[in-house]
Amino acid sequence: MSAVAFERKIVTREALVARRATLAGPVVFTNGVFDILHRGHVTYLARAKALGASLIVGVNSDASVRMLGKGEDRPINREDDRMALLAALESVDWVVLFEERTPVELIAAVRPDVLVKGGDYDMDTLPESALVRGWGGRALAIAFEHQRSTTALLEKVRSQAGATESGH
Ligand SMILES: Nc1ncnc2c1ncn2[C@@H]1O[C@H](COP(=O)(O)OP(=O)(O)OP(=O)(O)O)[C@@H](O)[C@H]1O
Ligand SMILES: O=P(O)(O)O[C@@H]1O[C@H]([C@H](O)CO)[C@@H](O)[C@H](O)[C@@H]1O
């Protein structure tokens, strides 16, 4: 079967760099694991898109997630599934994988105009921010609007499963 249309948003780093000059600007970039997609994520991505004309999401590869120490069983969802869910969102224009522990090399290759993360990050401490500001770009955090996290969702599922097993 042929790929569904939204999967065309998933591109290699090389393909993205090759088309960078043709992207509608300002080009906004964010990155993350996005393991179990939740309302906090989708609201944040919609806000990120509103800061520019094109939104690129850099997604940690499964091997890269394992370097982050989020837990031995993480990621729960494999990289191609995490990328497909992001690509299906209206706010997201391009999805690209990165294999490194941080997105610094990817950002250096793509040279976005705006870098965003969620409000759990202090942008002034991130090397990515210094990089983007170095070519005159902006680096900013978007405030949390919904208190959700993949880790909290997993804890909830596990505690409910534990209660069921113990007969509560
Ligand atoms: N509730 C939220 N509101 C706004 N932004 C969020 C929220 N949760 C995560 N983000 C942002 O989404 C991006 C991806 O986050 P991440 O994959 O770490 O989500 P998470 O649900 O917090 O995961 P984990 O619990 O595994 O750390 C990051 O830039 C993060 O700041
Ligand atoms: O989903 P997360 O945990 O927000 O994503 C991580 O963000 C890191 C951030 O950009 C710098 O601390 C990044 O280095 C890491 O690879 C994940 O993408």
From TrEMBL:
This is D-glycero-beta-D-manno-heptose 1-phosphate adenylyltransferase. Keywords: ATP-binding, Carbohydrate metabolism, Nucleotide-binding, Nucleotidyltransferase, Transferase. It catalyses: D-glycero-beta-D-manno-heptose 1-phosphate + ATP + H(+) = ADP-D-glycero-beta-D-manno-heptose + diphosphate. Its EC number is 2.7.7.70. InterPro entries: Archaeal_FAD_synthase, Cyt_trans-like, RfaE_dom_II, Rossmann-like_a/b/a_fold. GO terms for biological process: carbohydrate metabolic process. It is an enzyme of class 2 (transferase). One of its GO terms (molecular function) is phosphotransferase activity, alcohol group as acceptor. Residues 29-143 form the Cytidyltransferase-like domain.
